[in-house]
Hints:
Keywords: Glycosyltransferase, Transferase. This is Nicotinate-nucleotide pyrophosphorylase [carboxylating]. Its EC number is 2.4.2.19. GO terms for molecular function: nicotinate-nucleotide diphosphorylase (carboxylating) activity. The protein is an alpha/beta fold. The chain has 2 domains: 4-103 and 256-266, Quinolinate phosphoribosyl transferase, N-terminal domain (Aldehyde Oxidoreductase, domain 3); 109-254, TIM Barrel, CATH 3.20.20. Helix content is 37%, strand content 22%. The protein has helices at 4-12, 18-23, 44-53, 81-115, 133-142, 160-163, 187-192, 207-220, 237-241, and strands spanning 28-35, 39-40, 57-61, 67-68, 73-80, 120-124, 146-148, 156-158, 180-182, 199-203, 225-229, 246-249, 260-266. It has a 7-stranded parallel beta sheet. Helix 1 (4-12) crosses helix 4 (81-115) and helix 4 (81-115) packs across helix 5 (133-142). The chain is elongated, with a radius of gyration of 23 Å. The two termini are 36 Å apart.
Amino acid sequence: MFDSLTAGLNEDCPYGDITTELLGISGLGKFRFISREDAIISGTPRLKEFFESKKLQVVDCKEAGTPVAKGGVIIEAHGELTTLFKLWRICQTYLTVMSAIATQTHKLVSAAREVNPDIQIVVACRKAHLGMRLDEMRAIQDGGAIYHRNSLSDTILITQNHMRMLDSLPEKLYSMQHKIEFEPSNLEEAFRYASCVDVMLLDHFEAETLKPVVQELRQMNPKLQIGVAGGITLDTVKKFAGFVDLIVLSSVLYAYPLDFTCRIERI
């Protein structure tokens, strides 16, 4: 299985750390990763495993999914200074990216649940960065959301591209193991197939237009789960949260990295 931290180390230090070697830095030390802003932490369990695999002793580690205040220590480890200097940059990058996803996800979930405590914020994981899917799925969960479509093999989602290959959906759609999700290209398709599918994902609709549509779809199929997708942001999520079951988005996967720093010292 692909490991992002190992791959990152191999990219960043393929033949050794020639600066630290030139300066003759050696002995024991410690590094601490510190937040320069309030955040929700993600990635620390994986970092702890990685540090220990490199013979570092982890002495402090913030639990994933918990908040950290500006100036707070996220994780601290002790060991050979030569190892610390090889690891700090890639680990800081990993931590800032994972925690940015968790933090932005938490903001969206909190905003939506102010309007609807039962709303599910769902992140489309097939849009995760290549090779980073498992890490980013954990960050999504640390932020309080759930993930949608880990792969093509675990969810049935009939998209507009599928419909271009068909005249219409088969009359009897059935899956024993999976719910059938449908993304209509227009309202006519939504109403036509409302009774045939389990989940209806309405993509790129305005909230004002969508609300009466959702009410009509529920009358046609009271068991239908209805989700909205397409351009949902922190500024717009409350507009939809009051009348749908799911809000599907991927923007949190591209959240701007947080401002973390790493301090290395001798011990």
